[in-house]
Design goal:
The protein has one domain: Aldolase class I (TIM Barrel), CATH 3.20.20. Helix 6 packs across helix 7. Helices cover 54% and strands 11% of the residues. By secondary structure, it is α/β, with parallel strands linked by helices. It starts with a helix and ends with a helix. Strand 1, helix 2 and strand 2 form a beta-alpha-beta unit. It contains 14 helices and eight strands. An eight-stranded parallel beta barrel has the order 1-2-3-4-5-6-7-8, surrounded by nine helices. The protein is globular, with a radius of gyration of 19 Å. The longest helix is centred in the C-terminal third of the chain and has 26 residues.
Length: 320
């Protein structure tokens, strides 16, 4: 009998949530995603020091400011691209490369940074059809994505926790969204004092299911990619989602499981939500009313920003 991972791949595009090429090669996903925390962790591994050195060499030549701090800042972007280029040698599809989280509330600078990343890939001979630019699902990030999508730069809106964020992303015609299933669960466990939820009642699973049904009911082309999983139950409960990005540990668990894996998400099922349209004021009202989304979006941006700052310091120490 086929493993759970094999059955999942039959109904959902499986994406590797890692910067470790060895894990990507092992599980053979179509796409791969990275984020500042994953890049920082991979950069510390001995097997990837060659990529770190390449990024630093590039930054030394490219940076107009010769200070170590400036070179390290420049090297962070290049390192993300270096990892992306290596990942694209392994996966047949796309890699997600993230815009500096510290720009999450600045539309213009986010657009500028995304164009820089795409230009780096283009110079290496990699077309923009193989890249997803990751942006935080702030109003400013969504508006940046709307501009970039019109330029043919495909975007992955990350740190997505609330229904209002998903609606705004669909209206902006972004390529893909990444609702953070496990982080939603974390918030509810902490706020309710519960020790667990069944997979079907998991608040993160229910959020992704709601978004998926809304998109399919109203004909939005934006794809839904569940992310940030805490256990395999969350994953199997979302079998049939457009995409799921999964960490190597959980991919290994799925590969070791056998039995029947039924499809849970059905594109024909009608949404219980009426179609809505959001302007900035409505988005802000809905965001303020959603304490979980408010808390987790801020926490996520702060966490990714810290990871970038830590990576810059790590790279500074390698400069001579």
């Amino acid at each position: 009998m086929a493993t759970f991972l094999e059955q999942l791949k039959a109904v959902t595009v499986v994406v590797a949530d890692t910067g470790d090429f060895e894990s990507i090669q092992k599980f053979r996903p179509r796409d791969a995603t990275t984020n500042p925390s994953l890049i920082s962790a991979a950069s510390a591994m001995p097997q990837y020091q060659g990529l770190v050195a390449q990024a630093l060499d590039w930054a030394r030549k490219d940076s107009q400011d010769p200070s170590k701090a400036a070179i390290a800042r420049r090297a962070v972007d290049r390192l993300a691209v270096e990892f992306g280029m290596e990942i694209l040698k392994v996966v047949p599809g796309r890699v997600s490369t993230e815009v500096d989280a510290r720009l999450s509330y600045d539309t213009d600078k986010s657009i500028e940074k995304a164009r820089e990343l795409i230009a780096m890939y283009a110079k290496a001979g990699i077309g923009k059809e193989r890249i997803l630019i990751k942006l935080a699902s702030t109003w400013e990030g969504i508006k940046a994505a709307e501009v970039l999508e019109r330029e043919g730069i495909h975007c992955n809106l990350t740190l997505l926790f609330g229904f209002h964020q998903a609606v705004a992303c669909a209206e902006a015609k972004v390529t893909l969204i990444s609702p953070f299933v496990g982080r939603i669960l974390d918030w509810y466990l902490k706020s309710t004092g519960k020790s667990s939820y069944t997979p079907a009642e998991d608040p993160g699973v229910k959020s992704v299911t709601r978004i998926y049904e809304y998109y399919k009911t109203y004909g939005y082309k934006t794809e839904v990619m569940g992310a940030s999983f805490r256990n395999v139950g969350e994953i199997t409960e979302l079998a049939g989602c457009d995409l799921l990005t999964i960490a190597p540990k959980l991919l290994a668990e799925l590969e070791g499981m056998q039995g029947e894996l039924p499809r849970k998400l059905d594109p024909a099922k009608k949404s219980a939500d009426a179609k809505v349209s959001l302007d900035r004021a409505a988005f802000d009202r809905m965001h303020a009313a959603d304490q979980m989304a408010t808390d987790k979006l801020k926490e996520g941006i702060d966490g990714f920003s810290k990871a970038i700052t830590d990576l810059e310091k790590q790279l500074e120490t390698k400069l001579t």
